[in-house]
Structure to design on (716 residues):
């Protein structure tokens, strides 16, 4: 008997089941076919300007800085400004995201290179798939557009978020991935990022910048400039 | 580092821990640390108690259908290009991991924090097989340098001071200038970042644990604040996930429920910094990610807990809240428990996994104050389960002879109420006389276990039963009912 068969048989013996009971199989099939949303906190259930303000509040609480611009054409200038005020080199790594590629990077003095990060990049920029109002989190999907290494290797991570992609809760991210038939299979990696890297392992005190980015800056594109 | 099981020596371990001044200073910070932050986070979310119910129900449903969810999960992992390996016990899990590393021609293996890795003693095995395992969680890295085991399931180096870490870094990081300034704790963090970055980039295989496994999509989930788990699993050729069977939840939405109670219960954060959902190996066209994805599913005694009262323990999501709130853990720390899992959750889980013969002492390390159950995000009745173990320990004659004969003596009197009253009256009167009005004993024959650490209070003369009977007599004469407080004269 293989380990697999032995373990499954052990589970069934302990539970007193055969695995063929129709009501059990039906309960599992139903649960998988129609996922229950459960308890979703009210604090993320906001729209429009209120949603952006709430996202900003919870992002700020975990040391994520947030600026709002009115259109994608302003993202390169805002990126250059943020790097400059933080005394960082005007160099940037990004993937192949078409939305990022369409922005006027040439109008800035930024030195932009493309591809995954190999560990020597100081600054990286990604485009988020979504933002989560409830926790001020960013959702980033792996792939050629926004390589996962850019989320973790550069010291400073800049993330562009379209205000239309702001959703109340993580459950809404799953709903959108399912609607776009990207939940079967999911992308190799779905990152939910809530603030810059930190550790409490030395002296039971939180310090930023453990292994991932030391700083996280979000540029929200909001055509209404409501906030 | 995998230490031998020292759970049978819990009493001696606890004595040593109480004498350890450095450890006691660290443990003194617990009351103002995690537990305060958890209380604040819970109070700030009106839905928190409802989420605890939801988390409990999700786990109960999953465990009741575990065979079916395992089959579904395995099918989804396979469909996304990954491999699922089942391991009946620790030895089988170690062998599977070493075989994967060997097949890939690996030398260096980076590791995210995994309690399953500790449970199966993986690092020692990998070293014996010629691989170099490097722990990348800062706390795990520190204790690996010290050849120690974690003292806390979410803060492995909780027992250490910054000064101790500085000594270890100076001892091990000899390639760095000896005159460097490490007086600020943040400089230790920066040094570890610098040293570990090289390991991340050089590793052939990355091993992580899993906080959850999702049956709907065949996904493994890790939760970290440092980002070390992500660098561990993204950069090497292969990603190996170590997980025990009970990590399963049915759907992505169920996982979202669990995440809301996990971080709040653990550290008081609304959300950990990095919550990462991994499904299979990198896809065609992906710019990065591991080329292979393996999941090792460990049983190691868990199927035997299903269908028993200890099935409830399999809801545990390893947040550490029970130990953060435990007066015993706060007094002796994690190492005294003598195996991978300390605190109340360890006192219930350890006897299940290594046997009541070796772990049977641990359920006695409880005052039954109930704080662990009151903060458990999945509402595990930890005190009840510890009591079950005590009963089993007694039934199997594993309780020490002195305790057994003491209980037998008490039982003899308890079954004879008249004799019991006489004996306790005599005992209380004798002790009251011997105390000569001091109200306490600094030393007492046969009670040095108590009086070495504190005074033993002296009885005032009469037994409780005698006083109760006298009070009841007075009340009857006054026309009241015995036990009705407001009628007391």
């Amino acid at each position: 008997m293989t380990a697999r068969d032995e373990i499954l048989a052990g589970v069934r013996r302990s539970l007193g089941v055969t695995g063929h009971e129709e009501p059990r199989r039906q309960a599992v099939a139903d649960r998988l076919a129609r996922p229950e949303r459960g308890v979703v906190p009210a604090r993320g259930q906001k729209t429009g300007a209120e949603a952006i303000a709430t996202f900003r509040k919870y992002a700020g609480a975990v040391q994520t800085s947030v600026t709002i611009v009115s259109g994608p054409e302003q993202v390169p200038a805002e990126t250059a400004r943020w790097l400059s005020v933080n005394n960082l080199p005007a160099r940037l790594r990004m993937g192949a995201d078409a939305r990022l590629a369409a922005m006027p990077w040439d109008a800035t003095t930024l030195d932009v290179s493309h591809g995954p990060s190999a560990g020597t990049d100081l600054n990286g920029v990604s485009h988020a798939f979504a933002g989560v109002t409830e926790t001020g989190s960013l959702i980033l999907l792996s792939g050629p557009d926004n390589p996962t290494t850019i989320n973790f290797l550069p010291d400073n991570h800049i993330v562009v978020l379209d205000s239309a992609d702001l959703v109340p809760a993580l459950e809404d991210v799953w709903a959108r991935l399912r609607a776009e038939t990207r939940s079967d299979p999911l992308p190799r990696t779905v990152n939910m990022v809530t603030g810059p890297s930190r550790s409490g392992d030395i002296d039971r005190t939180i310090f930023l910048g453990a292994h991932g980015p030391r700083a996280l800056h979000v540029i929200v594109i909001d055509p209404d400039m409501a906030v | 580092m995998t230490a031998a099981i020292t759970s049978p020596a819990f009493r001696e371990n606890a004595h040593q821990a109480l004498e350890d001044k450095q450890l006691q200073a660290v443990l003194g910070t617990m009351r103002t640390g995690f537990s305060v932050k958890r209380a604040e986070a819970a109070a700030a979310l009106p839905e928190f108690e409802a989420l605890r119910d939801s988390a409990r129900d999700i786990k109960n449903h999953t465990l009741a259908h575990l065979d079916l969810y395992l089959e579904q999960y395995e099918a989804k992992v396979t469909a996304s290009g990954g491999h699922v390996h089942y391991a009946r016990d620790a030895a089988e899990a170690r062998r599977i991991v070493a075989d994967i590393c060997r097949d890939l021609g690996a030398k260096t293996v980076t590791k995210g924090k995994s309690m399953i890795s500790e449970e199966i003693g993986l690092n020692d095995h990998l070293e014996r097989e010629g691989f170099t395992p490097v722990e990348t969680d800062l706390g795990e890295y520190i204790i690996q340098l010290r050849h120690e085991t974690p003292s806390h399931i979410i803060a492995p180096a909780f027992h250490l001071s910054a000064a101790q870490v500085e000594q270890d870094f100076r001892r091990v990081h000899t390639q760095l200038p000896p005159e460097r300034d490490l007086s600020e704790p943040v400089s230790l963090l920066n040094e570890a970042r610098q040293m570990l970055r090289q390991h991340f980039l050089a590793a052939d295989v990355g091993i992580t644990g899993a906080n959850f496994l999702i049956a709907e999509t065949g996904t493994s989930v890790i939760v970290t604040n440092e980002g070390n788990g992500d660098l561990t699993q993204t950069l090497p050729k292969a990603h190996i996930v170590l997980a025990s069977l009970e990590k399963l939840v049915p759907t992505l939405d169920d996982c979202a429920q669990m995440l809301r109670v996990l971080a709040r219960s653990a550290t008081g954060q609304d959300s950990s910094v990095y919550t990462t959902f991994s499904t299979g190996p990198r896809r065609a066209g992906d710019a990065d990610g591991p080329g292979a994805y393996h999941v090792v599913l460990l049983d190691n005694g868990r199927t035997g807990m299903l269908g028993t009262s200890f099935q409830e323990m399999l809801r545990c999501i390893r947040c550490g809240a029970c130990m953060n709130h435990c007066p015993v853990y706060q007094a002796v720390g994690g190492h005294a428990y003598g195996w991978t899992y300390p605190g109340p959750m360890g006192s219930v889980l350890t006897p299940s996994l290594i046997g009541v013969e070796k772990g049977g002492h641990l359920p006695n390390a409880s005052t039954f104050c109930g704080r662990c159950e009151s903060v458990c995000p999945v509402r595990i009745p930890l005190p009840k389960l510890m009591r079950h173990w005590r009963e089993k320990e007694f039934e199997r004659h594993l309780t020490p002879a002195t305790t057994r004969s003491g209980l037998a003596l008490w039982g003899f009197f308890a079954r004879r109420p008249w004799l019991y009253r006489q004996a306790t009256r005599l005992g209380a009167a004798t002790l009251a006389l011997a105390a000569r009005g001091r109200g306490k004993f600094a030393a007492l024959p046969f009670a040095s276990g108590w009086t070495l650490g504190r005074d033993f209070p002296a009885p005032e003369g009469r037994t409780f039963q005698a006083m109760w009977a006298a009070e009841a007599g007075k009340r009857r004469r006054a026309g009241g009912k015995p036990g009705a407080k407001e009628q007391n004269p």
Summary: Chain A touches chain B through 83 residues (CB under 8 Å). The first helix of chain A runs from residue 3 to 15.
